[in-house]
Hints:
Number of helices: 5
Largest sheet: 7 strands, mixed
Helix content: 25-40%
CATH topology: Rossmann fold
Number of domains: 1
Signal peptide: 1-26
Order of helices and strands: HEEEEHEHHEEEHE
Shape: globular
Distance between the termini: 50 Å
Keywords: Signal
Organism: Pseudomonas fluorescens
CATH architecture: 3-Layer(aba) Sandwich
CATH superfamily: ABC-type transport auxiliary lipoprotein component
Protein name: Penicillin-binding protein activator LpoB
Amino acid sequence: MQAIRNLSLALAVLFVAGCTSFTNDASPNLPRSAQWGVVPMVNYSQTPQAGERSEQILLSVLSSHGLKPRVYPASAQGEQALMDDNERLAGALDWARQQKLDYVVSGSVEEWQYKNGLDGEPAVGISLRVLDASNGQVLWSKSGARAGWSRESLAGTAQKVLDTLVGALRFE
């Protein structure tokens, strides 16, 4: 009886661990007191406005970790929404330099959907990067993905992914 219980527990842990995947890239020590900014997330998913939704959740998560980032203004994004992603990032980095920011958080949404089937689990895949605003150098990068349970929301699943990603940053 004990063996069956242990086997069941091991299978449950394996099943839950199989629903989450994160890369492991060590973060440099970054000053929490620095000037931080958030630029638009690139949406590679099939869901319209997934980038904008993830940005709003990212702001909340960064705030919960003690950061007060400035946000790239929507008015500055106007025509840039139609530009190539690299051109948009270059424009956002110009804005960051004008604002005298030290670091910029950027990233992309690779997956943002409810899976097909009876359960319709939410599935989210996000990559984040911390850039040196002065030269655009990537200081840290990490990706994560998670498939939630059938009663979870996309936003709740995204918040868990983003919290894990931001939680991997080391602040001094």
